């Protein structure tokens, strides 16, 4: 019996080597223009003001970056956004996640996306 459990765990970790080692937690950042709220729940409840910083000195090069409170996470997932078709927010060009030098994870937005009303959901992977 034990050997079977061990064998199947071994097989599972072999088939899904990465996901097996992580605890995935959801983060939703709901932004009305530059003001964002963060939820750590899968159902997007419990929104509280996100810790955001702003840089850039003109409307064109404004840069908004919000902490998504994933300190210690090793990876992140694809980001889903709502509305999905909002064309001013394009991952890598006007928004993305970033791991800062002090181990925090942020979502940044710039250009027109920095002023958008947009909700973004990402998952952080914490090592088990
Ligand atoms: C918000 O971020 C600033 C700069 O990183 C930090 O000094 C401050 O402690 C943070 N506040 C909270 C509530 O996390
Ligand atoms: C936003 O930032 C990205 C990455 O730094 C950069 O490639 C892009 O040109 C910037 N876009 C605008 C509109 O400032
Ligand atoms: C964002 O939402 C606010 C309040 O609903 C609205 O006044 C504003 O025009 C919206 N901004 C954009 C860029 O859609």
TrEMBL record:
Keyword set includes Signal: yes
Domain DUF7808: 47-127
KW Signal (keyword) present: yes
Protein name: DUF7808 domain-containing protein
Signal sequence, renumbered to the chain: 1-17
Swiss-Prot/TrEMBL keywords: Signal
């Amino acid at each position: 019996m034990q050997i079977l459990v061990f064998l199947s765990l071994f097989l599972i970790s072999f088939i899904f080597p990465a996901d097996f080692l992580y605890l995935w937690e959801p983060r939703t950042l709901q932004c009305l223009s530059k003001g964002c709220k963060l939820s750590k729940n899968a159902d997007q409840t419990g929104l509280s003001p996100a810790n955001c910083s702003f840089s850039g000195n003109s409307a064109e090069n404004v840069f908004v970056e919000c902490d998504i409170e994933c300190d210690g996470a090793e990876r992140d997932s694809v980001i889903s956004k709502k509305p999905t078709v909002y064309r001013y927010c394009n991952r890598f060009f006007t928004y993305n996640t970033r791991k800062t030098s002090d181990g925090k994870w942020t979502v940044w937005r710039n250009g027109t996306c920095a002023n958008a009303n947009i909700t973004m959901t990402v998952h952080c992977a914490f090592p088990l």
